[in-house]
Design goal:
The complex is a heterodimer of chains A (524) and B (306). Chain A is of the alpha+beta class and 524 residues long. Chain A is built from 14 helices and 22 strands. The N and C termini of chain A lie far apart (61 Å). Classes of the chains: A alpha+beta (524), B mainly alpha (306). At the A-B interface, helix 1, helix 4, helix 11 and helix 12 of A face helix 2, helix 5, helix 7 and helix 11 of B.
């Protein structure tokens, strides 16, 4: 019996060791940076589902540096040439001729020419769930080695801003297998980082791509490792210990502590994601504009930002964040003047809407029914805290809020069906067309369910207006109407907070919020 | 014995089938679907429809289930909706870490638990007994994430003995194994103590003592071996607990195992991955319990399966 038990446990041990893949003991500190002081380790919360830009639904620092974009944004948010050197809008605006720069090369060593871009677009349109970003393409014609023409079924003005995002970045289709798949194992884009290995669930490792335009300098690092550390405390400890050099999305409660460390630099860049308080505009309770404006007037954004986000956000009153094309200072000022907190004015508006009695709990009542709504919020602790502040602010004007915490997946699925009353949610897109395709477009108002023919028609014109100045004017008009109608309450744009250590230089794009790899130089 | 084996294998198959139906139903009943996760804000009616067809979600639930099971029997657990990897590939990539974690936490939990349990039984009603049972209680009640952070702060952050997180060989599994094994150790210690106390009262122990058997021979040769039968049952049952605990442990220690995979698969409603993983885990638990049942006959020759 003893011998058999011994044999059994020995076999189990051998099995475990075999499963460990020979590296049975490992290094004393698996993630220390000994012997690789030019390696940059970036700590991230979650792993991207894929590095294939035509497949992923989670673009971020860990997968987008594989790709160089067709156009890009400068530090002021203007669209400037990148892989595309120039373009010409032809005829009625349904056709655009693009010229490519001539020295770009994919990571595979193959030239990034018009034919390659055409193949990449064809794959995007055929297989990507995000093909809407390219518009309804009728045809792509290769005019010469570095020139191609795209013809759309209808004019598609957002194409140029969309071309600054990695969604439309060209990838090397020639590396795919017979099934048109396999990019994960053989990825080839033309961005600053070239993939070395993917360790699923653990890390993605890149090296600087030598043929990228490093602005006349040598890359300031030898490799980049993106480590996925879901637990907040663990991530912070890894950074404090020095095993992680770049900590993205630093949780607010740790900023003060990290700032005390003289070796740590905190970088703040305004994000492009606008958090808002929305509601199902189809519900009778929200039909009256006075009610909607009263809610907007009851909200004190600064109090939410100070109490829930450590002050690390910027209040927004207008419908678009500053980073989006179509943002207007004029609209922002107008909205700020109109909706700076004024509870007396809010109560007056509610009273005009018929909510002029209050019950013993201080909740306003109309026709015997109290103003009580359910607010959906996801499981992000900061959002839950914000929901609590909103709950208390709305109670001050007699609106009772019940908070329901739901999984993001549930909110995404159920809000298009109108199952919600109120929600705390956000959106982020670099173009004002987001007002059309997501927020207020005809049959596209997925979460707000807002219907307004006049606003529809302006937003639809904006989507096909190829003249950028005229387009801006259209969006200004639409936003003016939205401010007046108040179908939602824009709240704030959170800051993207990054903590870094041991760099001579390290920049983050002020609009896109992504790491500028050409600026990164590790301290030697 | 062979008729018992046939019966047990048949029961195992029925259980796995039952689990598959339950898992399939639950994953389709919970709110949220993969289409919304994949398409997000870019979803249009047309793109939703296209993706539904591509993923096979346009078929009725029973058709989806039978088609899934037909493939599963042939070893094909489908392709992840989110990552595009096959589920088998995902499991094979991650199983080594979870297997090692489960194995070493089981070893740690069993050895620690049995030692503490024996000490408590032998030193019954002394300070050693009370201390041992207090330790067992802490092991059972302290939450995994708290133990994990405590160990990380002490052994990784302050003393720099072990890595904080990530996987690179067994060295990086020391703290996770202790974290996960502590709960098991607590339960085993309590079971060992009570089982040992029962055995110590038996006549044959008194006889052995009368014949002049030494303390160690009494404990390890005569008492412990007989006291281990319920403990082995508990160890088998703890395997399920370890699988559940691995979810938290792998998340805190950033280990790329099955636990962290299932967390991300559930949050993205990656149906094939969740189904494949749960089915796989259920099969593992059923098999481990089966092996434990067979072990009884080795531990106690009086037990015979007919």
């Amino acid at each position: 019996m003893k011998r058999r038990s011994f044999v059994f446990f020995t076999m189990l041990l051998i099995l475990a060791l075999v499963l460990s893949g020979c590296n049975w003991w490992g290094k004393s500190d698996s993630n220390s940076k000994e012997g690789s002081n030019r390696e940059v380790v970036v700590g991230l919360v979650s792993e991207p589902d894929s590095v294939d830009i035509h497949r992923t639904s989670s673009t971020g620092e860990a997968n987008t540096p594989l790709y160089d974009t067709l156009l890009k944004l400068d530090n002021d948010g203007n669209i400037i040439p990148n892989l595309i050197t120039d373009y010409e809008v032809v005829g009625d605006g349904k056709e655009v001729i693009f010229n490519l720069k001539k020295d770009a090369v994919f990571h595979s060593g193959k030239p990034l020419n018009a034919e390659a871009v055409k193949l990449s677009f064809e794959r995007l349109v055929a297989s990507s769930p995000f093909s809407t970003n390219a518009g309804e393409i009728e045809s792509i014609e290769v005019l010469s080695e570095y020139s191609f023409k795209i013809k759309w079924i209808n004019q598609f003005a957002p194409f140029f801003i969309n071309a600054t995002t990695p969604f439309l970045a060209p990838l090397d289709v020639s590396v795919l297998n017979d099934k048109g798949d396999g990019f994960e194992k053989n990825p080839s884009g033309s961005g600053p980082l070239k993939l070395i290995e993917i360790n699923r669930g653990d890390s993605i490792v890149y090296e600087p791509y030598k043929d990228f335009d490093w602005k006349g300098q040598e890359p300031g690092f030898d490799s980049v490792k993106f480590r996925f550390i879901p637990d907040e405390e663990t991530r912070i400890l890894e950074f404090k210990k020095g095993n992680v050099d770049v900590l993205l999305n630093v949780p607010y409660q740790y900023i003060e502590d990290l700032e005390k460390d003289s070796e740590v630099t905190i970088k703040r860049v305004p994000g492009d994601v606008l958090s808002y308080l929305g509601w199902n505009n189809k519900l009778p309770i929200f039909q009256d504009v006075n009610v909607r404006q009263a809610i907007a007037l009851a909200i004190d954004r600064d109090s939410i930002i100070d109490n829930t986000l450590n002050g690390e956000a910027q209040a927004v009153f207008g419908p678009l964040p500053k980073a989006a094309f179509g943002y207007s200072e004029k609209i922002e000022k107008m909205a700020t003047n109109k909706y700076t907190r004024d509870t007396d004015a809010a109560k007056k508006l509610l009273s005009e809407a018929g909510w002029n009695e209050t019950n013993k709990d201080g909740v306003v009542v109309k026709d015997g029914k109290e103003f009580s709504v359910d607010l959906w919020v996801d499981d992000d602790p900061a959002n839950q805290r914000a929901a609590q502040v909103i709950q208390s602010q709305l109670m001050e004007i007699g609106i009772k809020i019940t908070i329901s915490v739901k999984e993001a997946a549930t909110i995404i699925e159920q809000t298009p069906n109108g199952a919600h009353e109120m929600l705390l949610w956000s959106f982020g897109w670099p173009d004002a067309d987001v007002l059309n395709f997501l927020l207020f477009g005809k049959d596209k108002s997925k979460r707000l369910h807002y219907e307004n023919e006049k606003i529809y028609s302006i937003l639809e014109k904006g989507a096909i207006e190829m003249d950028q100045e005229a387009r801006l004017k259209l969006y200004e008009k639409a936003q003016e109407m939205l401010v007046e109608e108040s179908p939602f309450v824009p709240l704030y744009v959170k800051e993207n907070i990054t903590a870094i250590r041991n760099f001579e230089s390290f920049e983050i794009h002020p609009i896109e919020g992504s790491i500028e790899w050409t600026s990164v130089k590790v301290k030697e | 014995m062979s008729s018992y084996l046939v019966k047990r294998i048949f029961t195992m198959i029925i259980t796995i089938l039952g689990v598959s139906v339950l898992v399939f139903m639950i994953i389709h009943l919970i709110p949220g679907n993969p289409i919304n996760h994949i398409l997000g804000d870019f979803a249009t009616e047309e793109s939703i429809r296209e993706l539904e067809i591509r993923l096979g979600l346009d078929r009725s639930i029973p058709v989806q289930y039978f088609s899934y099971m037909l493939n599963a029997i042939q070893g094909d657990l489908g392709i992840s909706y989110i990552t595009g990897y096959t589920v088998v590939e995902e499991i094979l990539n991650r199983i080594p870490i979870t297997a090692q974690l489960a194995f070493f936490s089981m070893i740690f939990g069993s050895i620690t638990g049995i030692v503490i349990g024996v000490i408590a039984a032998v030193k019954k009603n002394t300070i050693y007994d009370q201390l041992a049972m207090l330790l067992a209680l802490v092991g059972i009640s302290a939450p995994g994430f708290w133990i994990a952070l405590f160990l990380i702060l002490l052994f990784s952050y302050q003393l720099s003995i072990f890595p904080i997180s990530g996987y690179n060989g067994l060295y990086s599994l020391v703290l996770p194994s202790i974290t996960l094994g502590l709960g098991t150790a607590g339960s085993i210690a309590r079971m060992t103590r009570s089982s040992m106390l029962d055995v110590i009262k038996q006549d044959y122990i008194r006889t052995a003592k009368a014949k002049g058997a030494g303390v160690y021979r009494l404990i390890f040769r005569h008492s412990l071996q007989n006291a281990l039968i319920p403990v082995v049952t508990l160890i088998g049952m703890q395997f399920g607990y370890l699988m559940a605990g691995a979810v938290v442990t792998e998340t805190v220690f950033a280990l790329p195992g099955l636990g962290s995979l299932i967390v991300s698969a559930i949050s993205t409603r990656d149906i094939p991955t969740v189904q494949g993983l749960l089915l796989f885990m259920a099969a593992m638990i059923i098999i481990v319990n089966f092996v434990v049942d067979l072990l009884y006959t080795k531990l106690d020759p009086r037990i015979q399966y007919e």
